[in-house]
Design goal:
By secondary structure, the protein is mainly beta. It contains 1 helix and 3 strands, in the order αβββ. The longest helix has 7 residues.
Length: about 80
């Protein structure tokens, strides 16, 4: 099973370089239900940013497939 399809805790066993190489970057379709119980679809990419709270500078960034869970990018960031 690919790294980013496993539980988040499993990412702790990998180096930053391994996580960066394994980040899914192929755009894929995603779907979820909104508050009105209607399906919302998307296709494309997603940007993940690590921003300093005092400086407001971008400290790290990743581009991933749009259907990747935001929490899965927390460990590499």
């Amino acid at each position: 099973m690919p790294i980013f399809e496993q539980k988040i805790e499993k990412q702790l066993d990998y180096s930053f370089e391994e996580l960066a190489k394994a980040m899914p970057i192929t755009p894929k379709w995603g779907v979820k239900k909104n508050s009105e119980n209607k399906n919302v679809f998307w296709y494309g990419f997603k940007g993940h940013l690590l921003v300093g709270t005092k400086s407001q500078y971008i400290l790290q960034h990743f581009l991933s497939s749009g259907n990747m869970n935001d929490a899965k990018a927390a460990i590499p960031l």
